[in-house]
Amino acid sequence: MRRLRPGELDADQRALYEEIVSGPRGTGPRLFALTDDAGGLEGPFNAMLLRPALGHALQALGAAIRYRGALPDRCREIAILVVAAVWDSAFERHAHEAVGRAAGLADEELRALRAGDHAALAGERERLVADTARALADRGDLTGEEYARARDALGEDGVFELTTLVGYYATLALQLRVFRVAAPGEDGPAREDGPARGGGPA
């Protein structure tokens, strides 16, 4: 997808653009770039401009997950990076490894999350969050035993938050894949000839 520039946006697109760059993502610590040098939105945000009514709702959900959720910062970033690993989403990995470092994740923990090795995480609760997020991203469900463990550790409200988080970041990973959005400095994934591959996460 072509990067949309601020000067070519219509009124609805411009309102969404301002909401993104002036909201908590833009006014808090800048751990990854929201815009390129010409002001175009990075990552999944550029595609949100295609349908501003949906883009407003989608970016607001993401802001609620990141800034108004109850999961500890490390747990939240662990879960996001698990989704990035399942979907092999380079932009999500790039952005949220930076956020994860700021939340206290060590480089060895980030490498382990890339490889799907949750045993390297420091705490039992964090390992449970990673395992639960992996089950949700891989299978779209939890067994009775997995649900009970997650409920006992996080509460039912925590399970709701975690399922919302996984669903949101899986949606972004899907859009990043379809629109071939790369991490800064990388090429996007190639589009294969012939029928699309079945299934979701790689």
UniProtKB/TrEMBL annotation:
Taxonomy, superkingdom: Bacteria
Name assigned to this protein: Carboxymuconolactone decarboxylase family protein
Domain Carboxymuconolactone decarboxylase-like: 52-130
InterPro entries: AhpD-like, CMD-like
